[in-house]
Write a structure and sequence with these properties.
Strand order of the largest sheet: 1-2-3-5-7-9
Number of strands: 9
Number of helices: 8
Largest sheet: 6 strands, mixed
Distance between the termini: 31 Å
Structural class: alpha/beta
Radius of gyration: 17 Å
């Protein structure tokens, strides 16, 4: 099943053997984020989550970047609400990757800057290119970091690292991202997608969908709600 035209869409979708690959597809612009891209990624998340044939989701970028940040070169602002929306949101990807039932792996094949990185931070796992640049650079542009990054960063790493990433807006390396806990592993760019696909195919083949959905929900709900260990034990028993 393919939800968007692979040739013309800013988000290309391909599903095979239980794995959906969602590709940010503006390589000539280093996959810079637009409102259309955000709407298409959101729809792809919803469609894949509702499709029982999809067991795992991989998000990656076409060409040599994952997403180089917001695209301010077009006539419309990249965070403009879609025509059917009346309110602006700094978290335009709805649902966020961590709100889906299916495991989501970000195959960050190249530079991920600004919203490019904050989208990836919402995934369950991140495989990143070791020689690319990463940064939540919004404070250097006079705006506030987006996509719930004040929450995701604080839970993926410690408060001091989150403060350094958010408050300085500096770029950092793949090795730093792994050391800080922001990525699972850093690999040569050419190996990133293959590694993410290996994980996704393993999940699709060997993991029970209901178990994965419940495990993921409990994992993220524990972070969101700050459950005590005994509360987690109770929820594990109930589920």
């Amino acid at each position: 099943m393919v939800y968007f035209d692979r040739m013309s869409s800013d988000v290309a979708v391909d599903i095979s053997a239980g794995v959906a690959v969602l590709t940010l597809n503006r390589p000539e612009h280093l996959n810079a984020y637009t409102a259309e891209m955000g709407a298409l990624l959101s729809q792809a998340y919803r469609d894949c989550d509702a499709d029982d044939d999809v067991r795992a989701i991989v998000v990656t970028g076409a060409g040599r970047a994952f997403c180089a940040g917001a695209d301010f070169s077009a006539g419309t602002a990249p965070f403009d609400a879609p025509p059917d929306e009346s309110a602006f949101s700094a978290s335009p990807i709805v649902p966020a990757a961590f709100e889906l039932r299916k495991p989501v792996i970000a195959a960050v094949n190249g530079h991920a800057i600004g919203i490019g990185l904050t989208i990836a931070l919402q995934a369950d796992m991140r495989i990143i290119a070791d020689d690319a640049k990463y940064g939540v650079v919004q404070v250097r542009r006079g705006v506030i970091p987006d996509c719930m990054s004040h929450w995701t960063l604080a839970h993926l790493t410690n408060l001091g690292v989150a403060a350094e990433v958010l408050l300085t807006g500096r770029t950092f390396s793949g090795a730093e991202a792994v050391a800080w806990g922001l990525a699972n592993r850093a690999l040569p760019a050419a190996d990133v997608l293959d590694s993410a696909m290996d994980i996704a195919r393993d999940v699709a083949t060997n993991v029970a969908p209901m178990s994965a959905a419940l495990c993921k929900r409990l994992l993220w709900d524990t972070a969101i709600n700050s459950y005590t260990p005994r509360q987690v034990a109770s929820l594990e028993t109930q589920l």
